[in-house]
What does this fold into?
Amino acid sequence: MIGHTLAASGAPEFVFTVLSVWRDAIHPTINLSQADPKCDLDYVPGAMRTQTVRAAISNSFGFGGQNASVVVKKYL
It folds into this structure.
């Protein structure tokens, strides 16, 4: 965790997403103490998981309504 970088938050988020795909790393969901049993997601609590990652999405939401998403896909 690096904290909030305000207007520059999209750039490091993009870099971290690219690195996750490149290194086949799934980062943990922080502060997850109990998963909702009605929400059937593959949570990654506690520690990073190494698994084949072919694509990832990064969403950025700004206070002023500026929103952006980027999809990163592994190119073989």
The longest strand covers residues 55-61. The mean pLDDT is 88. Residues 14 and 71 are 9 Å apart (CA to CA).
